Amino acid sequence: MSGLALGQTVLSKACLAAGMEFDGEKAHSALYDTERTAVLFCEIVNRWKRLGGWPLPLPTDK
To answer: Which InterPro entries match (predicted)?
Structure first.
């Protein structure tokens, strides 16, 4: 998802592209990577919403 939204597929680079902090010393810890991934996911979804991604338009009858 970050590849599509931010042009980055590496977690550390995606976080930085999203304006998030990323601690290379903590990287590759299952807990740290999972937390960063969850925050990144929320940032991408919220960014999409801010850009007008929701509500999705309903199909119109013709």
So the answer is: RNaseH-like_sf, RNaseH_sf
